[in-house]
Write a structure and sequence with these properties.
It contains 19 helices and no strands. α10 (204-224) packs antiparallel against α17 and α13 (268-289) runs antiparallel to α17 (359-384). The protein is 83% helix and 0% strand. The longest helix is centred in the middle third of the chain and has 30 residues, at 125-154.
Length: 407
C-alpha cells in the first residue's frame, strides 16, 4: 500500500473525528459556553451546511493549483478550525471554528479521492478510495466514544486539542508521503481552469449518479439520525447501551467500505445496485423487527455494511462520468450532505406525524428504493451510450492518465 494513501487516511480520520465527536460533547459544550441545547446543536448543523458549501467553493477556487499543495492547505485549515474551537472563549468563536474546520471537509475528500486513484493502477481505483475513506469509517466507530472519554476526563476542550494534534500529523504525513506527481495538474488543464469542469456537468450520468448518492445517503442517515430513539423506545435498550450499539454500526461501516471498494473494482454498477438493494431491504426488515434485541444488533451492523458499501464506487463513478473533474468529486460529497439533511428532515416529519420511532426506518427504505431505481436507470443509460458519455469528458482525463505515466 502506498504511504501516500496512509497519509490521506490519517487526514480523513481527523476530519471524521471532527464531524462525529461533537455528538458526545454537546452537553459539556452547552454548559461550558452557557448556551442552550438547541444553540449547541448548531455546532453540528452549522458544520454540515458548511461542508456542503465548502466542497464546491474551495474546489472551484483551487482548480488550477497543485493538488498536493491544496490538500496540505485544506488540512491546515482544518487545524486552524479545531484550534479555534479548543481555545474558544465564546460560543460564537466555537461555532466559527466548526465552520472553518468544515470548509475543508468536502474538498479534501473530493480532491483526495482523485490523488488516491493516481497512486494505484486503474483497476484498483475504488480500493484506493476505500483506503482513504477508511479513516472516516474508523472515526465513525471511535468518534463519539473518543470524545466522551477525553471530554469526561480532561474537559471538552481537550478533545479539540487532541484533534488539532492529529491534524498537524496529517499535514506532515501528506507533505512527506504523498508524491508530487500524484497531485500534478498539467498545463492544458491549468490554462483551461474551471470551465471544462463545469462542462462536465452537462453529462446526465453525472447528475444521475449525484442523485443516487443523495438518495442513498438520505435514506441511511435519515434512519440513523433517530436510531437512538428506536433502540430505547422500541427495542428496549437503555440509553447507556446506545454507545456500544453505535460502535456495532461503525464496525459495519468499516467492513462495508472495504468490501464495497473491492467489489466496485470488479463490477462497479452491479456493486452499487446490490448495495442499495441490500440497504433498502435492511431498513425494511429493521422496521419490522425493531422490537427484538438480537435482530436489532444484527440489523444495525448490516445498516453500516450496506450503507457504506456504495461510497467508493459512487465517487469513482461520478468522477469517471465527469472525466476526472475534481469539482464532480466534491459535488458528490455535497450531494451526500444534502441527502443527510433531507433524510433527517423526512424522518423527523414521520415521527412528528405520530407514526412512531420505527417510521424513520420505513421512510429511509422508501428513499433508498428511489435511489436504487435511479441507479438502475443510471447503469442502463450509461451502458447504452458509452460513446456519448466519453465525448463529454473534459481534458482532465488526459491529465489523470498522464500522471500515471509520469510514475
Amino acid at each position: 500500500m502506498p504511504a501516500g494513501l496512509v497519509a490521506l487516511a490519517l487526514g480523513s480520520f481527523g476530519i471524521g473525528l471532527t464531524e462525529f465527536v461533537i455528538a458526545g460533547l454537546l452537553p459539556q459544550v452547552s454548559r461550558g459556553l452557557d448556551v442552550s441545547e438547541a444553540a449547541a446543536g448548531w455546532l453540528i448543523s452549522g458544520y454540515a451546511l458548511s461542508v456542503a458549501v465548502g466542497a464546491i467553493l474551495l474546489t472551484a477556487l483551487t482548480t488550477r493549483l497543485h493538488r498536493k499543495a491544496v490538500l496540505v492547505g485544506l488540512v491546515a485549515l482544518f487545524v486552524v478550525g479545531n484550534l479555534l474551537s479548543a481555545v474558544a472563549p465564546t460560543y460564537a468563536v466555537a461555532l466559527l471554528g466548526r465552520i472553518v474546520a468544515a470548509l475543508c471537509h468536502g474538498s479534501f475528500f473530493g480532491i483526495g479521492s482523485l490523488v488516491a486513484r493516481r497512486m494505484v493502477p486503474p483497476e484498483r481505483a475504488s480500493r484506493a478510495v476505500a483506503v482513504m475513506f477508511a479513516g472516516l469509517t474508523v472515526a465513525n466507530v471511535l468518534g463519539v466514544p473518543f470524545g466522551a472519554l477525553v471530554g469526561e476526563r480532561w474537559g471538552w476542550r481537550a478533545t479539540f486539542w487532541a484533534i488539532t494534534g492529529i491534524g498537524v500529523l496529517a499535514v506532515a504525513a501528506i507533505a512527506v508521503w504523498v508524491p508530487a506527481w500524484a497531485g500534478a495538474v498539467d498545463e492544458s488543464h491549468r490554462a483551461a481552469g474551471l470551465r471544462p469542469q463545469i462542462r462536465a456537468f452537462r453529462s446526465s450520468q453525472v447528475w444521475l449518479t449525484l442523485a443516487a448518492t443523495a438518495l442513498s445517503y438520505g435514506g441511511m442517515f435519515g434512519a440513523f439520525s433517530y436510531i437512538a430513539y428506536t433502540f430505547t423506545e422500541v427495542t428496549g435498550f437503555s440509553s447507556a447501551d446506545v454507545a456500544w450499539l453505535l460502535v456495532v454500526y461503525g464496525s459495519g461501516l468499516v467492513i462495508g467500505n472495504v468490501v464495497g471498494g473491492r467489489a466496485a473494482d470488479r463490477d462497479r454498477d452491479r456493486t452499487l445496485i446490490a448495495s442499495l438493494a441490500g440497504l433498502a431491504a435492511t431498513l425494511t426488515v429493521f422496521g419490522l423487527l425493531a422490537d427484538g434485541r438480537v435482530a436489532s444488533v444484527v440489523l444495525v451492523f448490516l445498516l453500516g455494511v450496506f450503507g457504506f458499501a456504495s461510497v467508493p464506487g459512487m465517487i469513482t463513478r461520478v468522477t469517471d462520468a465527469a472525466g476526472g473533474a475534481p469539482l464532480a468529486a466534491s459535488a458528490n460529497v455535497s450531494a451526500s450532505n444534502v441527502g443527510n439533511a433531507l433524510g433527517a428532515w423526512l424522518g423527523g416529519l414521520a415521527i412528528s406525524a405520530g407514526l412512531g420511532y420505527t417510521a424513520p426506518l420505513y421512510v429511509g427504505a422508501a428513499v433508498v428504493t428511489l435511489g436504487l431505481a435511479v441507479m438502475v436507470v443510471t447503469a442502463r443509460t450509461g451502458r447504452a451510450a458509452p460513446h456519448a458519455a466519453a465525448s463529454t469528458r473534459p481534458p482532465v482525463e488526459t491529465e489523470i492518465s498522464g500522471g500515471r505515466r509520469a510514475r
